[in-house]
Amino acid sequence: MSIHLENIAKHYGRGGQHQALAPLDLDIRQGELIGLLGPSGSGKTTLLRIIAGLEAPDRQPKGRILFGERDVTHLHVRDRRIGFVFQHYALFRHMTVYDNVAFGLTVMPRRQRPPGSEIRARVHRLLEMVQLEQLANRYPAQLSGGQQQRVSLARSLALRPDVLLLDEPFGALDAKVRQELRRWLRHLHDELNFTSVFVTHDQEEALELSDRVVVMSDGRIEQIDTPEALYRAPSNRFVFEFLGDVNQLEGEVRDGVLTCGDARLDVELPDGPRNLLLRPHEVALEAEPSEAAHLPVSVTAISPVGAEVRVELAADWLPGPWLATVRHADFERLALTRGQRLFAHPRHWHRFTAASHSECHATAPMAG
Amino acid sequence: MQRIGDSPGMRRLLIGMAVGLTALFLLLPLVAIFAQAFAKGLGTFWGNITDHYTLAAIGLTLFITALTIPVNLVFGVMLAWLVTRFQFPGRRLLQTLIDIPFAISPVVAGLIYLLLYGRNGWIGGWLDAHDIQLMFAWPGILMVTIFVTCPFVARELIPLMQAQGSREEEAAVTLGASGFTLFRRVTLPNIRWALLYGVILTNARAVGEFGAVSVVSGSIRGETNTLPLQVELLYQDYNTVGAFASAALLALIALFTLAAKAGLEWRASRREASA
Amino acid sequence: MKASAFSLGLPKARQRVLPGFGLSLGISLTFVSLVLLLPLTGLVGQLSGLSWGEYWAIITEGRVVASYLTTISAAAAGALVNAVFGLLMAWVLVRYDFPGKRLLDALMDLPFALPTAVAGITLATLYSSNGWMGQVLAPLGVEVAYTWVGIALAMAFTSIPFVVRTVQPVLEDLPGEVDEAAMTLGARDGVAFRRVLLPHLWPALVTGTGLAFVRSLGEFGAVIFIAGNMPYETEITSLMIFVKLQEYDYVGASAIASVVLATSLLLLLAINLWQGRFIRRLHGGSA
After folding, report:
1. The ABC transporter domain covers which part of the protein (chain A) (predicted)?
2. CB distance from B2 to chain A under 8 Å?
3. Closest of C117, C116, C228, C121 to residue B32, by C-alpha
């Protein structure tokens, strides 16, 4: 089922002075897995809860929410046929796992309620799917966080919702369980083919799991795109900075050369003060400067754990430390040690004009 | 956010029922007390209050309360300090024991004191031989009043002091504070409102205790009659307006207690909100 | 009292950082022994003079048994009324905002703050045949004052705060997600309340109702004025004790008091144990 939002806004507080969502539109296609990504206070949870019907959007401007062809704007949450998974699971503590999953079926009006045998069969199928059949008679307090979240998922799927909404579903779990559940959710989504929207503040999670990611800040949608497009072509500085570590280079450009203290870099930019951004993997380290780049730095910290070595760099011409990722081979070749003095060589850099959100000056190839 | 029972119809129905029932069961009696007390005008009310025996009853009640509060204050603070700042065997038992007065019917409370200190009791017999009479005299009233009110201060302090922990006091000790200085400068500022509320509750109950006191007082007019007993006496004498005049005084203390509680809670919620 | 005497049995190695252990232990133990425990010996002493047969005869005498029945049935009725009323009040005070809410909240504590004798004469006056309420109820054929209904009413009045004040904090702490989870699963208000919210409130509701019941069993001041105090009909057990005392029958009073005392303590113990079992299930541990 597709989801169509039109002119949805939300204000809180007395007289509505606090804006949670600026009027926004959003289209989600049938079968998509969408991640709502943003820092806390960006409005992503509010948006999800408005889709669910747990919050009402502002009456002015008049907005609309459509599930497929069905207008659900004024429909109560219990009639929207959604599944909702809460960050802290919200399992009913006084019910067993089985009763939790069966709840939605057993509270249906008698005429629509499936017969007992079918409810039993359906609940067992769901428990099988989340691999918890053997824990059916346990109480939530006796389960681990990951197990509880799986119960919560099974519970939300029992009514065969058209739309599955998840509010930071893995936020309260530790890293390993989170990884496992992510993979498993993706699998479930592909198999059952419903439309899913999940909220997260974790970029990695959003990029790994989603078909498309909606990046939000300050109650606005900054960009909607596939993970690849988002990472390669962020539409503005906020998206760029939010999606990964960022190194900044500020300086004055004159005749195609940017200078900052004793640092210097050839750039093809008009004269004036400029602010360039670089990803850690776009910074190469060498023992010598080049024609185009003279950026002396010294190593302040080294973390060799993982596929690449993370190196923290400092220099008196830099306002803040830089982060560079170096292949293990280069790390050994350069024999990096803390305190060592080197030269940074940007492979790419990015620049966003501050005034506009949408304008993007993509990368320029440099020596490297 | 939407919650269960938020529909306007349900809201109106439930609020209406709550307000209606509260007005009927709680507000109406309160109004009735004052209506009865002033039924024959302000002059009669004043006459009833300044009646010789009533004044004596007020005096005795104030006297008993004035003695009860400091005793329970010291005990409450000491007990709370003991069970929240130290670990020792029997700590849980001690905490359970102080709830005894809440579990015992007031008449039974009066009775056990009468049995022990009355002429037939093993202490009372000895006292009688030395011509000391505790029962049917003010010391007996004081003793049972202390008994029924002793949990109040401790019960207010223990949860609070437990929640606050002893880090601040430990820090003060490392800075060289000791003994009473430590308590006065570090502990007291943190617990003073709970302490105050404990005292207000103690006061309300001490002033109003009826069952236990009526067993040990002997109800001698002008001598061992506390204000609640005076209320009973006047009521049994069919002097309803007189009884309600005294009752109105007691009701005023109750209203003061409610106002104090509301005020302290309001203060706490404001501090929470600003924190 | 010397502090060192008390610390003898305690591990010496543990240094106590904070001062005042000896002093507070000394004062607390002295107080608890003299004020709380010593008087109980009077009751034991009085009863030890009785044989089992004599004891049994006193506590099963017809008039006394009638008073048990009156007390227990009225206390149970009062507690049940309070269960419903208290749940309603807690719900309204926690879930809704409306003008006058603070006043309503403050009024809930009135029965604890108001001296029981004052409550007693007030209710008796209100519900007597020419009182405000009595005048309204008399034409309907409802008699409250000097009947069993009056006893139940007085007991209900004095124990109002128990249910409200035990349910209120639990309801306040109930996360909004519980409501929301029930709603997203399609539950209507009535079903959601009965199947999801009520089970969460159940331990507090039962505890509060139990406490109200125990308190009502021992209530005296508020009840005697409205009770009528007719032997075999409207006499409560506390009054029986009082009557025996006025007849200088200390032994009889003690025997009946021991029944009241034992009942209260056992009920409180039962409430505590039940509560513990329930809480363990909801917060982990084996069921």
Report:
1. 3-243
2. yes
3. C121
